[in-house]
Amino acid sequence: MARRTKVATGATAFAIAVGGIVVVTTTGTPDAARADGADKSFFIDITKVPRGNNVNLDLAKRGARGTFTVDCGRNENGHFNGDNFIAQPGVRNGAEHLHDYVGNLSTNADSNNKSLLRAGTTCKNGDKSAYFWPVIRINTEEEEENEAANEEKLAADRVDAAKDEAAAQVDCPDVASELSEVPDQAMPAIDENLDKLDRESENANNQLAQGKQAGQVLDELKNKRKPSIKQIGDTMRQAGQPVAKNEDQLAGCAVKQNGKGGLDNGGDNSNVNAAGDAEKKKSDGKAADLPGVNDNNEIGNNEGEIQRAEKVDLTFTSGGARRVVAMPKFLRVLYGDAKQSTNGPANARPSWTCTGFEDRLTELYPICPRGSKVTRVHSFPNCWDGKNTDSANHRTHIVFSDRNGKCPRGFKNVPQLRITLVYNIPSNIQAAGQYAVDAFAQEKHNPRSDHDDFANVMSQRLMNQLVKCINSGKRCRQ
After folding, report:
1. What is the pLDDT of residue 456?
2. Phi, psi angle pair for 242, to nearest 5°
3. Which residues contact 369 (CB under 8 A, 6 or more apart)?
4. What predicted TM-score, i.e. pTM, was given to this entire model?
């Protein structure tokens, strides 16, 4: 009888019998891969990967040396789904593979700025950002066919999400991202006023939800924002770091309908929204054909035992920049390409290594020496266009810096998120090629399709502290 999927809770190595052939534990050589699973050509002995193949370590030697690490746990609460509200908003199981979540507790296909803001979080410092990546599974035997998803629950979720999405929200300029270096003596006053701005926006959204006229809400909100923005400007000027943008412009807000794409760019979204709507209609038309997640968290051809990361490290760095500015709230950022076989290699990046071998990254699944553990390293794009929190392809608004940490003209260096995931995969499973990342069917578990997603829902105050830690060279943990 096939074993059903369950989340791994221990690191006990075990022997496997497949079709009467016993797979013997080895020291970790690629030619030992001979059992079912991902194509064995996808695996490589990590000791055969050249040293120095890790641009992240090169950038760490440049620019500001500070870091900011957020403790959001290891998904101990078992938050999984096959959704992606950034790439395929509103489409249940649109990812066609299972995502592992930390941070925001509400994240699913119907997430939007409003729902993310009001949700809880697994992060100890209150960071409500969404961090999610495809799970890794061990698959050692034939699985049963996927069971039908719970349609009644999905329908109820869709109704709740539709109510959320119908609500309008205020869209205000992100003040934190306009600040230059904030001196230590100015931090308390700046943080206090950034908190006030966030509270005023939240109150305005509540008034809109209660049916108050948008024009009146915006007028009152502008008048409430002006004193805080003036105090921020005065504080920065006294510290010799004036705010470049006009204070009256920073005080003014707009009202936007909260669509599923969450594109609150503060600019002309007509093309972006049109593209998103077109993709949404296309996706909705096929939604009924998408495979569902069964009660054992299996979806599509992704079967096997889910491996929860033994260690999840969420660290923001300078990405090689001399200094960084705050990233705006609700910024969406993608790492890698889940459909690299279709889209080509441009956005795929080497993500795999082993503990003790972090000086090299590979595009293949690593086979680690005994005592070393399988590791994924995802370093996100870090050059923001200064205007948009998303774009039609979810990429052009934020790109990678060059190997010296410099951004293209017109882009700003923002903190670079680096997610490091460490797994305790038994040595015999590695050698047999029996672990793989969840993927779209056409990827056939290709390790080059590894990817990661992030949506910034930090308060402006928290983001300001993050920037301060990086630019001052401090190593902060929260």
Report:
1. 98
2. -65, 150
3. 27, 28, 46, 47, 354, 356
4. 0.77
